[in-house]
Known about the structure:
alpha/beta; 248 residues; 26% strand; 7 strands
Amino acid sequence: MTEAKAFDRVADDYDRxxxxxxxxxxxxxxxxxxxxxxxxxxxxxxxxxxxxxxAELGHEVYGVDMxxxxxxxxxxxxxxxxxxxxxxxxxFADGTFDNLVFTHVLHLVGDMPxxxxxxxxxxxxxxxxxxxxxxxxxxxxxxxxxLDRLAVLQPPRPDTPERLDAAARETGLERLRHEFAPDYExxxxxxxxxxxxxxRLPPYLWNVDDETWARVVEPALAALRxxxxxxxxxxxxxxxxxxxxxxI
Length: 248
């Protein structure tokens, strides 16, 4: 529930600071080729940008999330197809879906193995689980250098390829493929990144105490403020881990 309340707080700014439908469509295009025919559930649907992107491509998409303010925005994009629920106890019957999608959410669910068990339960035999997971990476630039300074604040990721594979095998999910590949392009200005960090939009900043903020975050913000052309976008190509599993 802590993560849900934090997302409640950032719901109004989330799309604007994270790329909105443009990013959602890019992510959907990368995922669509691995979907099997039939309904799709996105767990951790957020504001619905990826799910809406998949719907635009002709898929029957449903969404579940714990944050009601985020779901309110998703409901505008997927009317009648979103519901409140926990990834660790999905409110659906066994074998309901042909596909299930996790997009940058497995590190937030609190218990990844339990979330995978639930995913396997609501998938039909032969259904697909698609996961976008692990640490995204981009080529070095001025903004990435600032984010690298903040990496010490990020806890160890539970959703590495190795740990995800191990947890998936325990639930009857067999990996079909894995790739570390381009996911989305984004043009970000120093001023936009500064605002995002000052407003604590990244999850790893939500619970940073005052002493750590002064010691670690403020120097990074100061470095951002010194960059020239603060309103000139820096184009970044982000790469992510994508894994596809089949329900045995």
